Amino acid sequence: MAGSVRLILAFHNHQPIGNFDGVFEQAYRDSYLPFLDVMQDYPEIPFSLHTSGSLLEWLEKHHPEYIDRLRQMVACRQVEIIGGAFYEPILANIPRRDRIGQIKTFTEHLNQLFHTTVRGMWLPERVWEQSFAGDISAAGIQYTILDDYHFKCAGIAPSELNGYYVTEDEGRILNVFPGNERLRYLIPFSEPAQCIEFLREAADQPGTPIVLFGDDGEKFGSWPETHKHVYEDRWLRRFLDALREADSWIKVTTPAEAIDHVAPIGRCYLPDASYREMTEWVLPAETQREFVTLTNTQHEDPRFKQLIRYTRGGFWRNFRSRYSESHEMYSRMMDVSQKVAAGLADKGLSEDSRELLEEARLHLYRGQCNCSFWHGAFGGLYLPHLRNAVYRELIAADNLIDEAAGRTEPRVEVTAADFDMDARQEIRLANHRVIAWLAPARGGHLYELDIRNTGINLLATLNRRPEAYHQTILNSVNPQGSASTEKLASIQETVKFKQPDLDKRIVYDKWPRKSLVDHFLQPQLSLQEFKKGEGILGDFETGTYEASIRRSDLRVAVEMRRKGSISGLTGEIRKIVVLSADRPSELLIQYQLSDFPRNVPLHFAVELNFAAMPGNADDRYFYDASGIRLGTLDKSLDLVGVDRLSLVDEWLGLDVAVEMSRPGGLWTIPIETISQSEGGFEAVHQSVCVVPHWEFVMPAEGPWVVDLRMVLDTSIATARQLAETRSRNVHEAVAGAVFQEQ
């Protein structure tokens, strides 16, 4: 006769900040709503539900009826609400003050919304460091859910994982549950009978075994093919029916009930870890391929099964090492967080300023949403709209910080500091319209360019770099340019192609796709050769520049200079970047080339990249100095003898013009990455590369000089914002008048 087992079903529903409204709605229709429809027919089967703050805010606005239903299920004790950090940040990616702040703020919101008492939290991506125990406990939380992988990495035997443990940090106690990885793969991809059989094995364990399933709610309808499988083919109902039939030995419960009625297995301290797949994804591409191949080829060896318990992949924070763009967002976030904290610590702060800073902190919290900072089986970092959303929130917070400090007048300023924590100085130029960051130690690049009134970072670019799954693309493509698995499988096990010929479009960048990237090229180099990274002379692309700063009341200037050699020829580049208060939407850059031999042909180019402006849409296009359209922003152009090019994104209300004091050639190149997401492998437009270039010999006297002017016109967006504000004010006035009449 088998014993009994407690089963905890914990579901995590999440959509990131910045995801498209249609994606939210589709997930609601395919997953969140039908899941509740089914579960309400089984009121005796409780479950735990975590809904991220970004998704919850959307549901409160668009589907309040869903919130009402969930509130009723909470009142009937079928649902235990699990809290968390409000906007689903990786705790390792934000300061301690923000960890505690996000958790407390979300707990208060959930308690009020659902008339409950939140006791536990969902740990985003189960990224764990032992110090989090103290932070989570300090925020008033009693338990969290990790993966069994964390416990195995601590040397705990699989037979000792059917329950929960107590851990602590500096005397602050936290209960930790291990989520069962095997059950995570069985549900909902295997037949319910297999799940029941797995639970029967757990029930045979001594004591009072507890098995916890914890995973994404999107597996139940939103992942590819799962809506039909879970609802139309009735997998979920068949699973719940099986639990009903086994209720004599399977007690479905919640984490809070388990803590109240079952003692912990013991005390443990867990190493830094996440779920197993995450520790693989963070590894460099070649190391990742080697690690996964070794694991897969040795999987059936019983000795290796024993050994693998003591083998770990990488450390989550190294996503910021793998992807410089992730670290750039992190650095920007840290700067904003420090300014918000410093502002709120001012004891002489007025009430109005405090309100502005509290609003800024909310934008900061939204900008800490984790999905944009890493990449695995989902698009994550590779999705421009998610990165853009992070910058939009951080720029909004920055604007509110200035407003709270009374800094709203036209102005210009320059600051040098180690903004990105690389032990080198960066330079921040700012006025009331634009903020620009320069990295003299990294090629003198312009690496962030914020348009403050629209919340756009025009340099939220992404490099094309090796990924372990690129080899999967090369190995799996068939003559039709597509591949797929026939049976329903987890996302990690599926190979699908969203576009043909992706194997032919895998390209890797040899330098950062930022702006003011300086190139010396072979004379007569073609656009096609440059696109392949050929014909590059010297090392000015990433070399170290010396920098100096000049200030006046109306303008600031940064001069960067570097001496170097190209094919044995030595010379110097000076580039001067000017930002002013009286022409606040313009960035002026002057290049001076000197000391190169005067009888040798030179081919010089300045690479500019513009993100947030996707191609392949009629309302996103190039036009020339005569106003003639030259094609959409995903078009490669090879222009000769031009002195101006504009890029327009009508949807954003943005017109970016590049003007050159010397006519020259001009190339445009769409930069797209080949990445994976839950829908399959896909090409994603990341930025538009614009490259003015000139072929010349040095003048008889003095340096060769060219001026570049970048003009950032947001008048369309401003007019649209004013119209929306007027419309909203009229609507509110009419509503108020109607209310008074009633």
Written account of the structure:
This protein is of the alpha+beta class and 742 residues long. Among the domains are: 268 residues, 7-stranded beta/alpha barrel, CATH 3.20.110.20; 222 residues, Beta-galactosidase, Chain A, domain 5 (Distorted Sandwich), CATH 2.70.98.10. The longest helix is centred in the C-terminal third of the chain and has 27 residues. The chain is globular. About 1% of the residues have low confidence.
Summed up:
By secondary structure, this protein is of the alpha+beta class.
The biggest beta sheet, please? 13 strands, antiparallel
- Estimated structural class: alpha+beta
Mean pLDDT metric: 93
What low-confidence regions span 5 or more consecutive residues with pLDDT below 50? Answer: 479-486
Q: Supply the CATH architecture of the domain at 5-272.
A: Alpha-Beta Barrel
Q: Could you name the CATH class of the domain at 5-272?
A: Alpha Beta
Please report the number of helical segments: 21
Shape: globular
According to CATH, the fold-level topology of the domain at 5-272 is: 7-stranded beta/alpha barrel
Distance between the termini: 70 Å
Helix content: 25-40%
Q: What share of residues are in beta strands?
A: 25-35%
Radius of gyration: 28 Å
Number of E strands = 28
Layout: helices, strands, pairs:
Layout: E1 5-13, H1 21-39, E2 47-51, H2 53-62, H3 64-75, E3 79-84, H4 96-114, E4 120-122, H5 132-138, E5 143-147, H6 148-153, E6 165-169, E7 172-179, H7 181-186, H8 192-203, E8 210-216, H9 226-232, H10 235-245, E9 250-253, H11 255-261, E10 266-267, H12 276-281, H13 285-297, H14 302-307, H15 319-322, H16 324-344, H17 351-366, H18 384-404, E11 412-417, E12 426-431, E13 434-439, E14 445-451, E15 456-457, H19 469-476, E16 517-521, H20 527-531, E17 536-537, E18 546-551, E19 555-566, E20 569-580, E21 586-594, E22 602-610, E23 620-624, E24 629-632, E25 637-649, E26 654-677, E27 680-696, E28 704-713, H21 715-741
Parallel strand pairs: 1-2, 1-8, 1-9, 2-3, 3-4, 4-5, 5-7, 6-10
Antiparallel strand pairs: 6-7, 11-12, 12-13, 13-14, 14-15, 16-17, 16-22, 18-19, 19-20, 20-21, 21-28, 22-27, 23-24, 23-25, 25-26, 26-27, 26-28
Helix pairs in contact: 2-3, 8-10, 16-17, 16-18, 17-18
